[in-house]
Amino acid sequence: MNKRSGSKPHRPYRQVARAKAAAETGRRIIDAFAASAGDRWFDEITLQEVATRAGVTVQSVIRRFGSKEGLIKAMIGEFGPAIGAEFSSTPGDIDSAVSRLFTAYERFGDGTVRNLAQEQRVPALQPLIDFGRKEHRRITAAQFAPWLEKLAGAERRDAVDALVIATDIYTWKLLRRDMERSLADSKRAVKRLIAAVLAAYAADTP
């Protein structure tokens, strides 16, 4: 009787431990897939490669996520909020906005450009690409809200368009990869683009 009753408190603990272990395994698999996607073309990535990087079996990957498409959905859910936080800064603080932007692009930029290059031939990547575009626009509108709130309708839309272009991943690529500009020079160029947009669309800046 005592033995049976004494074992009960351990059952919830074991369940929590199993759930934690399962979550950690899932995170390792997602991290492994993200690492592969960061330096490989999508059709080159295999579930075996992901499993090996994560230290699990292919069956474990399939059981948890089903396919590479399932891994993409899981990656959006896992990293989406964190990426949003990494890009975001205090509204109106241009220096902080550009600094955070370049920190993120220096880490993820090459992989993102690679994904964009595959957009037309790999439909499975579309949810990830669409998510990135929507988040970039949302974050841009929030960061420059002190200027944009004075605009309305098509004028506000056009101003957001211009700011998105000024801070886009391809602008970073042109400066850092194609033109081989330094990080400091690249940040300065983007700040000038932003200043030009704000001057054109919102003369009365904070």
- Mean of the pLDDT scores? 88
Instruction: Enumerate the spans where pLDDT stays under 50 for 5 or more consecutive residues.
Output: none
Q: Please report the number of helical segments.
A: 11
**What's the SSE pattern?**
HHHHHHHHHHH
What features would you describe in this structure?
The protein has eleven helices and no strands. With 206 residues, it is mainly alpha-helical. It has two domains: 1-66, Arc Repressor Mutant, subunit A (Orthogonal Bundle); 75-206. The longest helix has 30 residues, at 10-39. The mean pLDDT is 88.
Task: Please describe the structure with a list of short key phrases separated by commas or semicolons.
206 residues, mainly alpha, 2 domains, 11 helices
Summary, kept brief:
The protein is mainly alpha-helical and 206 residues long. Helix content is 78%, strand content 0%. The protein folds into two domains: 1-66, Arc Repressor Mutant, subunit A (Orthogonal Bundle), CATH 1.10.10; 75-206.
Give a topology summary.
Elements: H1 2-7, H2 10-39, H3 47-54, H4 58-65, H5 68-87, H6 94-117, H7 126-143, H8 145-148, H9 153-166, H10 169-178, H11 183-201
